[in-house]
Amino acid sequence: MKIIVCVKQVPDAKDVRLDPKTNTLSREGVESIMNPFDRHALEAAVALKEQYGGTVTAITMGPPQAEETLRDAVACGADEGVLVSDRAFAGADTWATTYTLAKAIEKLGEFDLIICGKQAIDGDTAQVGPGLAQRLDIPYVAYARKIGGCVDGTIRLERLMDDGYDEIEMAMPALMTVVKEINEPRVPSLKGKMKARKMQATVLTAADIGADPDQLGLQGSTTRVVRVFSPEFSAEKCMLTGTADEMVDQLLNKLDKLL
Amino acid sequence: MIVDVARQITAEKIIPQRAELDEKEEFPTEILRTIAKGDLFGLYIPEEYGGFGGGSFEMVLALEEFAKGCVGVATSFAASALGAYPILVSGSEELKEKYMPVIASGEKWAAFGLTEANAGSDASGIQTTAVLDGDAWVLNGTKQWITNAGDAQIYSIIAITDHSKGPRGASMFVVEDGDPGFSYGVKEKKLGIRASSTRELIFKDCRIPKERLIGRQGTGFFTVMKTLDLSRPGIAALGVGLGQAALDEAVLYAKQRVQFGKPVISFQAVQHILADMAIQVEASRALVYAAARHIDTGTKEISKESSMCKVMATDMAMKVTVDAVQVLAGHGYMREYPVEKMMRDAKILQIYEGTNQIQRNVIGQALNKEYSRS
Fold it and tell me: Residue A32 contacts by C-beta under 8 Å, 6 or more apart in sequence?
């Protein structure tokens, strides 16, 4: 089984600050880590490899220092790392990112499964996994919480829903994004760390993947960050009492006030 | 790199669980499996048997990190090495090939059986016997206070094979969990290191294949002494890790706790306690590292250095943990804070793998021998 895991280097959430002037994340002096959801994606991939054999390739799009995250991935069981890196990629939104990653993955050749974390803790969009599947024209399942097994080119999954879960069988090649419940990521092993130290990531540039320059980076992005803020939740619980008719009246009254 | 892996396991797996393991007196099975996945069970085992090929120093580094989290967990890990050393030191090639790879991978855990009701510091009081009957050894007797007993799968045991030969009448054997006539006593209730398991090993006409004899017949005491020489720096490392953890807790607390309008660390009375703690931790660490490096040179004369570092670092751990409780005072005495557990855990370090009094005997005898030579 050839498995690709998408990983992203993100600032450690423990000390994230926003630049009040530019509304972007201030990364100066903040330690970088592998996106926590991606650690679960990697663990799922390595566990599948241990069960069915095959290889795990970790891929990341980012600046040269993102290679550190690929090293972490190798220390935790990935076989190799691919760094998709070019100045032309800078400022990419999820539209441009999925385009770039899709081109890079096509360049790598055939695969059976792509696994992503459900979202990155910096952007929080949860769009790259599903978007990448669309770009590659393969089926996908988001929010996988359990892998049942792989049989005859299909994979059985449980997808977490608001009110329970779905049991899904999906034909491969396919993509899945995972939630934290799926597993407990392993701590890197000594042998993995030694391998990681020697690892040379394959670097792919815009030219290497044959990308259309107009679709890359800020230029290829269809969205701009205008403002960053924490949404306020003002939900409150309210119990209605009385007869059914009285409660319906009360409810209609309340709905009237909202509209 | 060893430190990185051990530190991450300590931070992510050991520290979050230590209070519960202590409270419930629960063996840390899952944590040991994590350590196995981290490739740390084979640190001291040669590469040809699936190990990392390191020595005493590598073990010391890992044990120091684990002890910063929990000495109970670290003891369970260290006890597997204690059970493996006799096979590594004196075992036949067949025994090494059979047992070392599974111990190195952490797939199976080992334990060491020396102490009995009438034998501990005085190893010559051993009453467990082994008699050759055809192609099997038959063991009878009871070992007590055996770390990992009941949870390990491989046991290195010393038993008397010839009463008439005195110290040359003892031999070591490998006993496996499930061998006929081999059972365990009830789990002991302890002051500290409650995550580790301690039980009796009971042999009632326990038959094991002849090939399970470790080394030649009559070399049991030699193997035990050599094993303890190799393992003691590990116990010393537990003292260093524990002392460091207690110091860390004490300093952080002293910076936060405000009395008379100031953090208590601004008072010289507290500063001096912390300074003495730091001096002792650092001095012990230096001696332990030096002893481990000395052992790793391959020299045969290691008893004195091994005992010296064990005494110094474990006496230090006892004193420093008591001081940490004093610095945290009322909070330190409460189970909500980790230092009371550290103080309880420290005591065993002065007792097991040779009491600190016995260590001083070893050092004294080594000095006597050394100075007679010139």
Answer: A9, A10, A11, A12, A65, A68, A69
Inform me whether the C-beta atom of residue A194 falls under 8 Å from chain B C-beta atoms: yes
Q: Are B39 and A188 within 8 A, CB to CB? A: no
Residue B259 lies in a domain: yes
Q: With CB atoms and an 8 Å threshold, state whether A187 touches B8.
A: yes
Chain A residue numbers touching B9 (CB-CB < 8 A): 187
Helical H segments across B11-92, by residue range: 15-24, 29-37, 56-69, 71-90
List pLDDT tens digits, range B268-318: 999 999 999 999 999 999 999 999 999 999 999 999 999 999 999 999 999
* A235 contact B CB<8A: no
Cα–Cα dist B220/B86, whole Å: 9
B255 assigned to some structural domain: yes
Residues of B belonging to the active site: 353
Whether A190 and B9 lie within 8 Å, measured CB to CB: no
User: Strands (DSSP E) along chain A, which ranges?
Assistant: 2-6, 9-11, 17-18, 25-26, 32-34, 55-61, 80-84, 113-117, 140-151, 154-161, 164-171, 174-178, 202-204
Q: How confident is the model at residue A24 (pLDDT cuts 50, 70, 90)?
A: low
Strands A164-171 and A154-161: antiparallel
A24 touches chain B (CB under 8 A): no
Short-list B319, B370, B366, B313, CA closest to B343: B319
Residue A144 near residue A167, CB atoms below 8 Å:
no
The pLDDT of residue B313 is: 98
Range A2-232 has CATH code 3.40.50.12780 = no
Facing A187 at nearest CB: one of B1, B2, B12: B12
Query: Chain B contacts of A194, Cβ < 8 Å?
Result: 1
The mean predicted confidence, pLDDT, of chain A is: 91
Q: Which sign, positive or negative, has the C-alpha torsion B284, B286, B292, B298?
A: negative
The two three-digit tokens of residue A86, written as one number? 């070019």
A193 to B5: CB separation less than 8 angstroms, yes or no: yes
Domain boundary among B162, B191, B218: B218
User: Looking at the complex, does the CB of residue A193 fall below 8 Å from at least one CB of chain B?
Assistant: yes
Report ipTM for this prediction: 0.78
Same domain (yes/no): B131, B238: no
* Subunit contact A187:B2, Cβ cutoff 8 A: no
Token reading at B355:
């009491």
Which of A189, A193, A194 is facing B37, going by the closest CB pair? A189
Contact B1 A197 (CB under 8 A): yes
Q: Which of B163, B186, B218 is the last residue of a domain?
A: B218
B interface test, pick of A186, A187, A199 with most B CB neighbours within 10 Å:
A187
> Is residue B374 in a domain?
no
Distance CA B264, CA B149 (A): 45
- Structure tokens of A72? 């972490």
Query: In this structure, are B364 and B225 located in the same domain?
Result: yes
**How many independent structural domains does chain B possess?**
3
Q: Which helix (H) or strand (E) holds B137?
A: strand B136-147
In this complex, is the C-beta atom of A219 within 8 Å of any C-beta atom belonging to chain B? no
Domain at B163, CATH number: 2.40.110.10
Is residue B225 located within the same domain as residue B201? no
- Chain B touched by A188 (CB under 8 Å): yes
* Contacts with B324 (C-beta within 8 Å, 6 or more apart), sequence order: B246, B247, B249, B250, B277, B332, B339, B342, B343
Containing structural domain, residue B117: 111-218
